[in-house]
Amino acid sequence: MGHSLVIIDQRERAFEKLSMDFSGFKILGDATEQAILKQAQIDQAHYLFACTTQDNVNLMVAQIAHKIYRVPKVIARIYDPVRELIYREFGIETISPTHLTANAFLKFITHEETDIL
């Protein structure tokens, strides 16, 4: 789509999950550290997706991107739906796999469709 993509992960093995077609940049490090974010050129980013498996880390990274580096579009994955309101108070958009899954199941039950996914 013409975007440059940088993936940051603390585990080098995580990069093995990327497809062979991945043409972006990989940075080994902790995305909560500003030095790592600077290495990823966050000051030039248009988007930031915080999608670790830890809600608190996602909030921290999203806040840093939103407040310090003024990244225009920031979104964080959260697993605990209760935290969604907290994120929104900080101006962070969210995606909740928990909500998405629950909604898919509900849609399946209410529409009795088998081709939802």
Characterization of this structure:
This protein has 117 residues and is of the alpha/beta class. It has a single domain (6-111), classed as 3-Layer(aba) Sandwich (Rossmann fold). Helix content is 35%, strand content 17%. The chain contains 4 helices and 5 strands. The protein has helices spanning 34-39, 55-68, 84-89, 97-111, and strands at 6-9, 25-28, 47-50, 73-77, 93-95. The chain has a 3-stranded parallel beta sheet with strand order 3-4-5. A two-stranded parallel sheet has the order 1-2. Helix 2 links the parallel strand 3 and strand 4. It is globular, with a radius of gyration of 16 Å.
Tell me the number of helical segments per DSSP (H or I, 4 or more residues long): 4
Structural class, from helix and strand content?
A: alpha/beta
Q: How many strand elements?
A: 5
Named CATH architecture: 3-Layer(aba) Sandwich
Q: How is the quaternary structure best described?
A: single chain
Mean pLDDT: 89
Might you state the CATH topology name? Rossmann fold
Q: Helicity level, as a percent range? A: 25-40%
CATH class: Alpha Beta
The main pleated sheet reads as: 3 strands, parallel
H/E series: EEHEHEHEH
Give me the side-by-side strand order of the main sheet: 3-4-5
Rg is: 16 Å
End-to-end Cα distance, whole Å, is 24 Å
- Low-pLDDT parts are none
* Beta-strand content: 15-25%
* CATH superfamily heading: NAD(P)-binding Rossmann-like Domain
Number of domains: 1
- Principal-axis shape equals globular
